[in-house]
Amino acid sequence: MRDGHELIGWGMAGGVFPTYSHPSAATVRVHADAAIEVLSAATDLGTGTYTLLAQAAADVFDVPADTVTVRLGDSSYPDAAVSGGSTLAGSVTPVAHRAAAAVRDELIRLASALIGPDAGELQVSAGRVHPTGRPEQGLSFAELLGAAGRTVVEATHDDFAGIPAQERHDKYGTLALTKLPDAGTHSVHSWSAVFAEVAVDEELGTIRLRRLLGAFDCGRVLNPTTARSQMIGGMIMATGAALLEAVVVDARLGRLANPNLAEYMLPVNADIPDIEVLFVNEPDPYSNPLGSRGIGEMSMTGTIAAIANAVYHATGKRVRDLPILMEKLLSPL
Question: What is the pTM of this model?
Fold first, then answer.
């Protein structure tokens, strides 16, 4: 196929990435002024950990996520998985959710003693504990803690249970405690199908990415907005790996010839077309209690191969080392 002087190629590739998990812990607190906190030693590399943990607590207490304060990155907070290997979100979000549920249950227990047995079944919604279907008869969190004489209600959920203290101390912060994708009764992986369209100048050999679409099965998508953004970012990274990015080593001196952003080629806005992201969004009952799976590396898996296949479709030339540069297309087969 061609468009003027450009050869057009279509390519697709399937991707698979294993779902790892790591023991983690989190503490959730409701204070006397109704402030809600989530504490974890986890880190946020820009992948949305703050948002996901706030969302986990907000879901339990039925309050807006922006009313929950998340505190991360302090070694005095409960231990958590490392932020790598697409592991953190699927490891720490479920424990934060369980810790919040334990706080919710304690608030209901306190309220049942104050409201009395005649109130019937109690529930939590909109930051209040009240009889089911009768929110006007309930108590706000602040009113409840004040009446109970409590300054805070908190709970910690810890997935390290069953691991000896010395082993936990020795192996925490390493990958030694990581649960592999086939450690349970079912093998747990994420999957993708990525489609790319490229245009190759038949005289110059320059490659231009025209379309890119990725469809992903990553279990339950905890936050569609941040997940889509992360997938787009990863697909842009994959574009750079496929077409531009290379570390050039001076073989005589063993030094890098392009150790700066002036000479190390990165994709810019002009290199990236509109990117479409689709999610299957079906919970995986074997991954974790929330049914989610890691999504970070999944965004790159398959994208590079899809672009390479599109270049092959356009030119008939199979390039098997990255990046795919014009000189590789112009050289003899």
Answer: 0.85
